[in-house]
Amino acid sequence: MVAARILLAVVRRPDLWATAMDQARVTARPGWWRDWPPWPKPSGRYLEFRLETAYGSARPIAVSPADVVGHLEWCRDQRKLSR
Q1: Between 58 and which of 8, 26, 48, 81 could a Cys-Cys bridge form, CB atoms 3.0 to 4.6 Å apart?
Q2: What is the dihedral of CA 40, 8, 77, 32, to 10 degrees?
Q3: What is the sign of the dihedral through the CA atoms of 13, 15, 19 and 24?
Q4: How far is C-alpha 25 from the chain's CA centre?
Q5: pLDDT of 63-79, one tens digit each?
Q6: Nearest to residue 43, comparing CAs of 22, 28, 21?
Q7: Could you tell me the pTM of the whole model?
Q8: In what helix (H) or strand (E) does residue 27 lie, and over which residues does it extend?
């Protein structure tokens, strides 16, 4: 299961935990807590946009844990630069 491998990759990186939580907060679709299960996931349109900009296609693909970790590192570094 890809989601479990991604979660494990992030759990292994305590230096990215705060960034992962922040990204979950800022990308979660409005009212995410009203649906079951209450999981702060981005909207489908946002995910399509991110997949297309990252991989050139919005078609369902297997996102690698390394890509997610790399994205979180980039988000963390960009946040540091903006301060």
Answers
A1: 48
A2: 0
A3: positive
A4: 10
A5: 899 999 999 999 999 99
A6: 28
A7: 0.83
A8: helix 17-27
